[in-house]
Amino acid sequence: MSENRQHWLNEEAKLDELVQKTLWPGGQKAIDRLAKQGKKPVRELIDRLIDPGTQFFELSRIAGFGLDYPGVGDVPCAGVVTGLGKIYGNWTMIIANDPRVKAGTYFPITLKKHIRAQAIAEENGLNCVYIADSGGAFLPMQAEVFPDDGHFGSMFYNMARMSAKGLRQITMSTGGNTAGGAYIVFMACESVMIDKMSYSFLGGPPLVKMATGEVISAEELGGAKVHTHISGGADHFCQNQDEAVDRVREILSLTPFQKIHLHRYEERPSSYPIDKLYDILPTTGSQVIDAHAIIETIADDGVFNEYKKHYAPGRGDNLVTGKIRLKGYPAGIIASNKIGVIFEEAARKAAEWIVRCSYEKIPLIFLQGSPGYMVGSDAEHSGIGKYGADMVRAVSCAQVPRIQLVIGQDNGAANYGMCGRAYKPKFLFHTMRSRTSVMSGKSAGGVLLSIEDRKREAGGKPMTDEERNEFYEKMVQKYDGEAHPFFCGARLLSDRVLKFMEIRDWLAMAIEVSHLRPVGEPSFGNFRF
Ligand code: COA
Predict the structure, then answer these.
(1) What is the mean pLDDT of the chain?
(2) Structural element, H or E, at residue 336
(3) Across-strand partners of 94?
(4) What is the pTM (predicted TM-score) of this model?
């Protein structure tokens, strides 16, 4: 086994270990507790909900780890499972509370994940299924989850707007939905409740007793029977979870069939299996990569129709551009190559390519492994600033779906030009080789040390060599830690950390889902040229 392969298998084993924690929060005890309530673990419900034999593309599984919520610790999977699956052949967004994680309550990261899933659904025209079982806002953090835009109320605002756009919002309540949480049932286009399992009320029994003195059970106050037989706040009455899942499927079997607005050619395998990435990707993001070899593992038949292949050797080829087919779908590629530093020729080539793909209405895949744009007087004088800005402008304005996959360094303005989060790619994936931060640990350590040095000298207390080393190492560790895909994934800076083996399937899914809406006309602002 090659050294690279051994390294990446070890790295991905660490990812597996983390993911296991999200699959089984609370261990067997939590499963037994659910079973006593007649409930299945949430992913079992999802498996039954999606078409038999199809894949559930689960997003952001490592969200919620290592956050510093006081007195809370990890929030595995952010307490909510989100992802895409097909229901009667239609791509659907599924958003499901996991009651094993603090009763499915909403922490800031839970909201961020829920709202990101809704944004993907709204942008791409997907129906949503909510599997609702939540204690509502995590009350000790109410100030961080309740009042602001992007907080609790936004979930219902999004439901209302999506349903107005014809995107079905279906809620299957499998537990408590109290206070604000009740709106997930009442705002749905159709909601399904389960006898003696689902509850929905604006104030639970303890609050009702306090407010009015009325003593009433949860069942009588807002159980499935109340809302399906008396209040009319819910629409379908079921006896158990299996029946409820079948009912949701039935409801969605009657919605119009989705159309994909991109021609699909015959799907072909890549010329090298994607597995080859384990051998060809060096163990650190700062080492040289061969974009062509990477693309061969992704493209159908390994065919890469390269654009401006011979342009400006040594300066234009740190970034390669061209077209591939991926599982039959045509896609434009912009890929970091070699060391990945972007010179002005590469920036111009990329901007040109983005405009061309926009006129052709084919999606763009950014394979990002760049530490930044070239610095120094030569680069500045020959216009790296303006050509880099042109690339960033082209990325910002392109109407075609853009998808980012980070396979190495992801620093500085290269994060912008290669379509980082702020540039709203339809999907953003990391790998265990990704390192996303303003600059590398070593660069940050050096810059911050020079600032600290100046400060200490001005104060008349210059640092000793030992202090300087300690300071530098601390900064390197901080930056390297914050750039790691686990740190970023925990905060939802990626939609998923992909294993190399998964890359082709996920990119194909992302292309397909991104074309469920027609692509707009190209419109770019003022380039400098
Ligand atoms: N805020 C903070 N913590 C909450 C919470 C909330 N809204 N709702 C539940 N929790 C916590 C519990 O304290 C418990 O924590 P622990 O494991 O550290 O002891 C954990 O979540 C599990 O709750 P528990 O009550 O044991 O689960 P359950 O399955 O028996 O009941 C609910 C679930 C949701 C019906 C019940 O917890 C409940 O009624 N919660 C309050 C709901 C509410 O009034 N929300 C208003 C906010 S909008």
Answers:
(1) 96
(2) strand 329-336
(3) 83, 129
(4) 0.96
Q: Is the pLDDT of residue 286 over 90?
A: no
pLDDT at residue 266 in the model = 97
Whether residue 205 has its Cβ less than 6 Å from ligand 1:
no
Contact call for residues 155 and 112 (beta carbons, < 8 A)? no
Cβ–Cβ < 8 Å for 257, 89:
yes
User: What is the pLDDT averaged over residues 31-60?
Assistant: 97
Pick from 163-177, 224-238, 319-333, 462-476: least confident = 462-476
> Could you tell me the pLDDT band of residue 96, with boundaries at 50, 70 and 90?
very high
User: Ligand 1 center to residue 206 CA distance, Å?
Assistant: 13
pLDDT of 430 above 90: yes
Contact 402, 392 (CB under 8 A): no
210 lines ligand 1 (CB under 6 A): no
The pLDDT of residue 358 is above 90: yes
- CB 18 less than 6 A from any atom of ligand 1: no
CA 171–ligand 1 middle distance (angstroms): 20
169's tokens: 């919002």
Among residues 428, 409, 373, 390, the alpha carbon closest in space to that of 484 is found at 409
What is the residue with the minimal CA distance to atom 33 of ligand 1?
A: 103
**What long-range pairs does 247-251 form, CB within 8 A, spacing at least 24?**
247/172, 247/192, 248/49, 248/129, 248/170, 248/172, 248/192, 249/49, 249/87, 249/88, 251/168, 251/170, 251/190, 251/192
Write the residue with the smallest CA distance to atom 11 of ligand 1: 102
Amino acid at the residue 276: K
2: burial class by Cβ within 10 Å (0-12, 13-18, 19+)?
exposed
Residue 103 CA, ligand 1 centroid: distance in Å: 5
Whether 181 is in the pocket of ligand 1, judged by its Cβ within 6 Å, is yes
Of 392, 492, 478, 388, the closest CA to residue 437 belongs to 478
Q: Which atom of ligand 1 is nearest to the CA of 218?
A: 35
pLDDT of the residue at 441: 85
Q: Is the CB of 137 under 6 A from ligand 1?
A: yes
